[in-house]
Design brief:
By secondary structure, the protein is of the alpha+beta class. Helix content is about 30%, strand content about 35%. It is built from eight helices and 19 strands.
Amino acid sequence: MFLKVFVIMSRYYKVFSLFIKSQIFLPEAAPAEAAENYDAEIVIGSLSDEISADMALSETWLGALNKNNAWMRTPAGDFQIQNGSHVTVSPASDLENDPYISERLRIYLMGTVMAVLLIQRGMLPVHGGALLKKDGVMIVTGDMGAGKSTVVTALSLSGLPFLADDVSVLCEEAGVIRVLPAYPQRKLCGDAALRLGFDTSKMVKINERRDKFVIRGLRDWHPEPEPLRCIIEIVVRDGGGVELQKLSSLDKLKMVHKNIYRPEAHRLCSSSQILMNACAKVAAQTEMYRVYRPAFVNSLEEMIAVIEAL
C-alpha cells in the first residue's frame, strides 16, 4: 500500500446519525461541526501486523480476526474496521495525485466498510432506499435491476423526503425500530435519470460499467431518524401487470433476511442467530408488501400510484 507523509486535515460528518471524524474528504456525507467527542474515526495509515498477516493467508476480499476487528481488500486500498468506531484506510496510491483512487476509496467507505462498522455496533443494514411518509418510513427494496432506485427517486420527486438512497440502516430505540438517515445523495442509472428528467451531463458518473450517476447535496433529504412503518419489495416477472401483495408473517421474515445488505459481514462481525433475531423483530413490527411489475415494460407510473396509496 502507498503511504505518503503529509499534513492531513480532519473533517467532521454526520452519517447514519453517527458523528464521524475523517481524514478522507467525504463529499457524499452531511458536514458536521468539529467536536471533541465523536462516534467513529476514519484515518489514513497502515493496517495492524495481525490484520496484515491474516489478509496474507486469505484469498477472500472480506475477513476478520474476530467480531470487532475486520478487514477488507479492494483495488483502491485496504481497510481495517475495529470496534464499530475506528477505520484505518491504507490507499493503493497517492490520494493527492490520484483522484480515481480517492473516489473508489470513498465508494467502498460509504458502502461495505460503513456497513461493517454499523454491524459491529449492533445495527441492521437493509439493501433499499428509505422515504418518509406522515406515519413513518417506507423502505423500498428488491434485487439489482428491479428498479428500486428509480422508484425511490420518483417518490421523492413527488414530494416525499428521503432518508437513504441505497442502504437503509435500522436500529432499535426503546422498543421502536427506527431508520437512520444516510447521505444527502441519490444514485441512478443513466436511462432512469433521463426518464425522470435529469440532465446526466450535470451529474457525477461513479460507475462506467453500470452507467451509474450520482446527485449530491439534495434539499429533500431528511436528516433525522424516524420510525419504520413498512417495507416494499419490487419483483420483476414475465407478463402480467403491476400487482400489490401483502405478506404474511413467514414471508415477511424471509423477505427481510433476503434483503439484508452484506450478509457476509454479519457472519464475520455478528452471528447467524443475532441476525435472525433482528430480522424476526423487524418482521413482527412492520407491514410488508411485494409489488410485482412486468419485465421490459415501463410501469413506473402504475407502481408509484400503487405505493403512494399504501
